[in-house]
Design goal:
Elements lengths: L12 E7 L2 E7 L1 H6 L13 H9 L12 H6 L9 H7 L6 H5 L1 H12 L13 H22 L3 H20 L1
Antiparallel strand pairs: 1-2
Length: about 170
């Protein structure tokens, strides 16, 4: 598909806009997007996918965050590299590994909003995944076991305890 603006280059950006039930699709190349950037939310001077996404996700005003005003965002600064949260929201990258700790209270709500979780669970390799799957199942069973114990459902807890022991034996045999 070619760019709807210039008709010369392949369209690499595809926008769908729905207003009052009317759907409009725009397919443009990156060059035309730079020229037309004033029409794309969050891109005042030049086109940037990060600016577009940060505008949609609204990095600077996360609901429920105690630090949602701009003064607080500017005062939070990484002690290691000096990056502020405002700079991070514009750049979209951290300056160092310490930034994760410094901005942790702002990242958890953001990650939950984007990924609906703050824990990465990734794929498990088929060849060596058996042991990993067993360990994850044991972790879940232990959480369930604790719940049963708190609710004083000891028969169910005993069944889970036995299942955990069985899985632990399987891991030992692998």
């Amino acid at each position: 598909m070619f760019c709807q603006e210039c008709g010369k280059r392949p369209a690499t950006l595809h926008f769908t806009k729905i207003v009052n039930g009317d759907k409009t699709e725009v397919h443009i190349c990156e060059s035309c997007a730079r020229e037309k950037s004033e029409g794309i939310p969050g891109t005042p001077n030049s086109f940037s996918i990060h600016n577009l996404l940060s505008g949609l996700l609204d990095f600077n005003t996360l609901p429920g965050s105690a630090l949602s005003n701009s003064n607080a965002s500017q005062s939070i600064r990484c002690e290691n590299c000096g990056l502020t949260y405002t700079q991070f929201s514009k750049i979209g990258r951290f300056g160092c590994s310490s930034c994760y700790t410094t901005f942790a209270d702002r990242l958890d709500p953001l990650l939950k909003r984007v990924h609906s979780s703050t824990v990465h669970s990734g794929k498990i390799p088929k060849r060596s995944g058996g042991q990993i799957k067993c360990k994850r199942e044991i972790e879940q069973l232990r959480r369930d076991l604790q719940t049963y114990i708190e609710q004083e459902e000891f028969e169910s807890a005993a069944e889970l305890r036995d299942r955990i022991r069985e899985l632990e034996r399987q891991i030992a045999d692998m």
